[in-house]
Design goal:
This protein is mainly β and 88 residues long. 11% of the residues lie in helices and 32% in strands. It has a domain of 60 residues: 2,3-Dihydroxybiphenyl 1,2-Dioxygenase, domain 1 (Roll). The model has no long low-confidence stretch (mean pLDDT 82).
Amino acid sequence: MADSGWRWVELALPHAVTNLHFISRADASPSEDPVMVLVDDNVEATVASLRAKGVEIVSEPQEAPWQPGRMIAEFHDSEGNRMMLASR
């Protein structure tokens, strides 16, 4: 978004609710904070599958402190950015 440092990714998937997550980035370096939240029905199984493929898991599945009952976990993508998985 021009020189402001703000970027976004917008996805339109069939039969899905699209959420936008805005982040401010000084440059293209990998982010220390989650840059995208992926919603998944089974966070634990997805983390196990990612781990088996060699993906670096940053935080193990755990209950979200801001929403009891919602599971979250974090991993690094192939470019080193921090990503989050969250249950519905």
